[in-house]
Structure formats: structure tokens, C-alpha cells
Input
Amino acid sequence: MASPQPRGFTLIEMLVVVVIIGVLLGITLLSPITGSIQKVIQKEATRLQVLFTQVRDQALLENSHYGFSIDNDGYYRWWVLPAESQEWTELEQSPFQPRLMPETLSLSLESMENSTPLDGDEHYPSVVFYSDYQVTPFRLSILPAEVSMANSKQSLHLFTDGLSDIERVRE
Output
């Protein structure tokens, strides 16, 4: 009679199982990290696109000019130039109150005509929504705060040529 074969797993089989479990855990743990920044960017892009549409319609209905700017502290601001006034006033009422971008994001605003940054002035908007439904041509980039080659593909861009609706593009 032959001796019975030992039962159990070899060291190699155990190592393969541990490696597979490690890879699966790594994928599972990293997915929410990369997915969450995309969700935040998507949410802010949607919010801004809706606000741009609302302010453009409001400018047409009220026969006033509205504006948008970004300051150096990470806030974006809304402005109004009523038909009877010659001075821009910052809006404070919802949904057009100043809003601070989440720390994980940054905004970059540039002119569509010559690709130069539109620097915000403390007393004037960078982008104007005119009462005749035209807009200063612009490109607003919503980027992760730490831009690298890996996460630069997570950025979203809102842009218009001044006549058409605000469009959204992922690059």
C-alpha cells in the first residue's frame, strides 16, 4: 500500500492567490480616488453651464448686461450692469453669489479670440453676457488643482464663440 499524498496548497499557489487579492484590492481602493475628482469636475462644470445659460437668458429678458470673473483667491463672481447704470455691481443673491471652487479644482479663463488669459479685475467682469444674447468669446477650463500628465485628461472645458450656446468638451 502506497503512502497517502499530502493534502494542502503549495507555497506557490498561496503566493498567486495573495498577489491576485492584492491586485483586486488595489483596483478597488484606487477607483474611488480617481472617480471622485471626475465627479467633482463634472458637477462644477454642469453647475457653471446651467448658470451661464440662466444669466444669458436673464440678460436678454432684463435688457441688462451681466458679467463673470474669476479672482486670484479661487472665487468666481457674477456682475450686473443695469440699463440705467454705468457701473458694474457684484451680484450677491442666489444662485449668482460669489462661490469658492473646491480646493481640489482650479479654473482657467481665456479668450477664444487670441488664447490669452482673461485676468479678472476687482471692479469689472472678464466675460460679458450682453442684452442681445451675445457673449464675450471665452474658454473656461476646470482642472484638478494638481495638474499632471495623468490627471490633465480629467479636465473639462466650457466655451463659446460668442454667438452659440456654451458647449462642454473633455480633453
Remarks:
- The first strand starts at residue 65 and ends at 70.
